[in-house]
Amino acid sequence: MFFPVAYMAPRLVAAFLLGSALSTAVAAAESPWIKATDSKVRLVSAAVAVDEQERTVAGVQIRMEAGWKTYWRNPGDSGVPPSFDWSGSSNLKRAEVLYPAPRRLADASGAAIGYEDEVVFPVLITPERPGEPVALKLNLSYGLCKDLCIPNEASLSLVLPAKEAADQGDALLLTGFLDLVPKSAEAGQLPTVSAIEATLDGSAPKLVIETQFPAGASGSDLFVDAPDAYVPLPKADGPLNGGKQRFIVTFGSAAEAAKIKGKSLTLTLVYDRGGRQSTWTAQ
Question: Which one of 169, 173, 226, 272 is most buried, counting C-beta atoms within 10 A?
Answer without folding.
Answer: 173
